[in-house]
Amino acid sequence: MGIRYDWQKDEILDIYNTPFLELVYQAASVHRQFHNPQQIQVCKLISIKTGGCPEDCGYCAQSARYQTQVKPEALLEKETVLNIAQKAKETGVSRVCMGAAWREVRDNSQFDQVLDMVKDVTSMGLEVCCTLGMLSENQAKRLEDAGLYAYNHNLDTSPEYYSTVISTRTYSDRLNTIENVRQTNVTVCSGGILGLGESVADRIGMLHTLSNLQPHPESVPINILSQVEGTPLADQPEVPIWDVVRMIATARIVMPGSDVRLSAGRAKLSQVEQALCFMAGANSIFSSDDNKMLTVTTPCPDYDADAQMLNMLGLEMRPPFEKQQKKPNLMNV
Ligand code: SAM
Ligand code: DTB
Ligand code: SF4
């Protein structure tokens, strides 16, 4: 079957509620039609501008509104970023994602510095992704000109639940930035978080929105909430592994050509649980040398542990830009 953009909520819910092993089997089958199941893309996050964010995202350690462990820092120097990227490249990482705790991009010297980082990391032969908050079409074009490969902008949850978690911007602000990125050749990375107190209907609502975008986001991160002390969501219960696997499998089936990334919260999972996620269609992870995702509040397995796990599972690290040639064909399947 080809790629569909007209998924209905009840169809997505039926997939999500399929008996567990049957769901994993179906997702694994779809995965094999669209991807090389031998490969996992390993990505490295770099927090180029940490903390002090004016937004009020209820899960986030970097919001200036909450008292968390994270202290605001200045924009990193380009040299620092290049050193981290070089080390990542040497361990086999093929994608570097630079995150800034900004509400939106402004056309100032900081943005010029980020464009410069994008240019230099891209010229190292790595896929570069940025996540910098809201973006105008012109700013997206400037990132494209600098060589940016992907822009991350998550929908996080359903349109209905969004305002419970974030009040300082709307769901349509989010969709608008994604639309601005789509005016360029930069690929779109957009997914969400499990464990915000959302219902199954909200999870389906998010997958419904994502899977009705045409084209689908090329990359769909599935984050498991990291409960950060000081934030409104600090006391949320753990998400059952069964829900994580169901969400990955459902994303894989409704957006078969996209990369599904097992993102924040992976450090909470055993290697066996992670293997189940890969079986269900996750084909990317974030790995690190400093044991954190963007901030210390969210642990991340390290390069050595991940190399050992992938080796044990007989999986390879995907080289950069493998998807580029395949993308036009996939659109016509
Ligand atoms: N400021 C930019 C923005 O919000 O678009 C980019 C950075 S933000 C940290 C990127 C994504 O990380 C969020 O959309 C959210 O999905 C995820 N994230 C942030 N804090 C998290 C947490 N505590 N647990 C799980 N995921 C989290
Ligand atoms: C995404 O969906 N997950 C990554 C990436 N996009 C930028 C970020 C996870 C951040 C986890 C929270 C922290 O490290 O503070
Ligand atoms: Fe700011 Fe992004 Fe954190 Fe929201 S998720 S508070 S926008 S850094």
Could you explain how this protein is built, in words?
Strands 1, 2, 3, 4, 5, 6, 7, 8, 9 and 10 form a 10-stranded parallel beta sheet that branches. The protein has helices at residues 9-16, 20-34, 78-90, 109-122, 137-145, 162-165, 171-182, 200-211, 241-254, 271-279, 303-313, 322-331; strands at 39-49, 95-100, 127-131, 150-152, 187-189, 192-194, 219-224, 259-262, 284-286, 316-317. The protein is an alpha/beta fold and 333 residues long. The longest helix is centred in the N-terminal third of the chain and has 15 residues, at 20-34. Helix 3 runs parallel beside helix 4. The chain is built from 12 helices and 10 strands. The structure holds S-adenosylmethionine, 6-(5-methyl-2-OXO-imidazolidin-4-yl)-hexanoic acid (DTB) and iron/sulfur cluster. Residues 53, 55, 57, 60, 62-63, 101, 103, 133 line the site of iron/sulfur cluster.
Task: List key phrases describing it.
333 residues; alpha/beta; 10-stranded parallel β-sheet; 12 helices; disordered C terminus; binds S-adenosylmethionine; binds 6-(5-methyl-2-OXO-imidazolidin-4-yl)-hexanoic acid; binds iron/sulfur cluster
In a nutshell, what does this entry contain?
The protein is α/β, with parallel strands linked by helices and 333 residues long. It is 39% helix and 14% strand. The protein binds S-adenosylmethionine, 6-(5-methyl-2-OXO-imidazolidin-4-yl)-hexanoic acid and iron/sulfur cluster (SF4).
